[in-house]
Structure formats: C-alpha cells, structure tokens
Amino acid sequence: EAGVTQFPSHSVIEKGQTVTLRCDPISGHDNLYWYRRVMGKEIKFLLHFVKESKQDESGMPNNRFLAERTGGTYSTLKVQPAELEDSGVYFCASSRNTGSSYEQYFGPGTRLTVT
Amino acid sequence: AQSVSQHNHHVILSEAASLELGCNYSYGGTVNLFWYVQYPGQHLQLLLKYFSGDPLVKGIKGFEAEFIKSKFSFNLRKPSVQWSDTAEYFCAVNRRGSGYSTLTFGKGTMLLVSP
Fold it and tell me: What is the DSSP letter of A103?
C-alpha cells in the first residue's frame, strides 16, 4: 500500500506570507496527525483528526495555524501569516484506528523555512 | 504532562561496537513506549514498541529495548552496529487507553556509525 505522502517537500517563504501544507494519509486510515519539529527540539504534536473531525487540537501553537480535512481524506495545514518561529519540519502521520496501541505511519515531512 | 528525555544527542560508534541509547519518560500513569528511527532521506519508521508483557522487546534489524518500570526507562540496545544503522533515533510515549494516541517524543539521538 502507498505510504503517507506530503507536499511540498520543501517550502521557503517570507515572513508574512501564507503557506499550505498537504498530507495524504494511507488509504483507509481514519486517524490523521500533524506534528512539528523545530530545529534542535523534539517532535511535537499539533493536532489529531478522526475522519473529518478534529479530535484534539491542543498542540496548535496559535490561531495563525488552520488545519482542515475535507471529506476525511487528505488534510491541509495553512499558516497565515507565517512568522520566523514557524520554521521547522512538519510531519503528518496516519493510523487505522483510534487508540494508543495503533501504529502511526509517518510521512517524509515538509521542511518549512520562513525568512 | 508527559515528557521524554533522551540522554545523548549525538553518538559516534565504529562498526561492530555495541549500542545503548538511553530514554527516560515522565508520566504518572500507564504508558506505551516506542522507538522510531529516521534513516537519512527517509520517513520516520517504527523500530519497536512496548505495550505490556515481557519488558524486553525485540524490534527490526536486531534492535531491542528493555522497559524498566521502576526507573521509568526504555533504553534501546543493539549488540553490534552496522554502518547502515546511521540514523536519528527517537524515543516516544503515549498514554495507554482507547482514547489516547498522541505521541510525545524525545529530542532524538543522532547515531553515526563509521565503517
């Protein structure tokens, strides 16, 4: 089966601009997660979708970040307006079922650089 | 809140040397424990996991980890590393239960194995 894919792989934007990241989970996976790794820091949870619903968005840093999952398939994460501290690698992961024992499969990440 | 501490940020070994990467977590309840690996240019992938039972778990590529509950530790080991083990290794935990799946990661350990 195809893995989790993310687009773009890299994005360089200026402060104040808008960027939209996309994640396509593994087909049939209802659970979709966004994580972020800022340079030198740990990978941190941003939010969790179950199908099209936001199960947990406690990790979203502020209201400049907007995540959607239309129809419970792919997801987008928009940053508007981008700030310097938003730079990092944004990972998407998916899992078949909700619950702590189900493996999350990660995408390759999108490296976002805000200048 | 959960937290994960990885003892070493960078480890350099020669081929055939033994490896042990330290991981300690902080959480008052019951957790699941994971080690993920990211090889250069590849996705994060699951190396091994512990949910319950035998505290010594074996994963892919000859890796194993031991859960020591009294020490809140889940150290990763491999008796003899290979050049192909060069990668970044992440320890992660989540809270056990049907409604909990969000992973909390450590900062990662970059392992460089010289041939």
Answer: P
Q: Which residues pair with B25 in a beta bridge?
A: B4
In whole angstroms, give the CA distance from residue B84 to residue B113.
8
Residue A100 has pLDDT above 90, yes or no: no
Alpha carbon distance A50, A56 (integer Å):
9
Beta-carbon contacts below 8 Å between A and B:
64
Q: Specify the DSSP class assigned to residue A104.
A: P
Name the closest residue on chain B to residue A40, using Cα atoms: B107
C-beta atoms of B4 and A42 within 8 A: yes
Q: Does residue A14 carry a pLDDT above 90? A: yes
CA distance A54 to A48: 6
Range in A8-12, A99-103, B36-40, B46-50 the model is least confident about: A99-103
Is the CB of residue B46 less than 8 Å away from at least one CB of chain A?
yes
Q: Which residues pair with B100 in a beta bridge?
A: none
Interface of A with B in 27-66 (CB under 8 A): 31, 33, 35, 40-45, 48, 56, 59
